[in-house]
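Ligand-bound model needed. 2-phosphoglycolic acid.
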Amino acid sequence: MRRPTVVGNWKMNASLEDTAALVSGLTSGWTGVHQAEVAVCPPYVYLAKVAELLEESNIAFGAQDVSEHESGAYTGQISADMLLDLGCKYAIVGHSERREYQGESSELVAAKFEAAIKKGLVPILCVGETLEEREQERTFDVVGQQLRAVIDRVGLEGVAKGVIAYEPVWAIGTGRSATPEMAQEVHAYIREVMGPEGEHTAILYGGSVKPDSAAALFAQQDIDGALVGGASLKAEDFLAICRAAE
Ligand code: PGA
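Prediction:
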């Protein structure tokens, strides 16, 4: 069976002080989470601190990105080995904010995905359509293409080593979550593209997940958890979402 998984994406938020407060809120409020896999993805520069603070906990952590290169003259980039060195389990790849603001193509995202799995870092592959694409009824096309770019590079067995996050761009940070049915439709499509290889692959939903919307989303057959942005910055809200995933 697939393990329910909740991942917090802090994006470019929090200070060193906020990081300590947030992590301490998570560890001290850690009740009612027994089966779910929980992880947080702070900014790179706080990873070492988070690693130290989470040492005795059941909470895993990861980065918000990873380089497609193994090492070398790539100023400003961080490799999979470096993340593993700090104890990272995950790296988000292909978040829509990076696709949009850093101009990351699906091919580059696929290269990052491959760089992660080669080293045993678990990539969380984000896919999702814009509002315009949804209105043009191109959701499956867009999500399918984003997914296929990675399948073409690492095969279905490769993709199955990661986690997939369906994040409709229009639902991210807007307070406008997809309905559970809308999300389920796309999750089922992703599951179908993955075929039997994807039977054990967690497919998370992301986009304005809040404590009061989480349970209905998680009740859907193919929604295995969430990638949480805004609500992961409040320990109580994030914990409530983790409990809803149980
Ligand atoms: P949100 O962000 O929960 O703030 O909408 C989700 C994400 O971008 O991963």
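Residues 9, 167, 172-173, 206-209, 227-231 surround 2-phosphoglycolic acid (CB under 6 Å).
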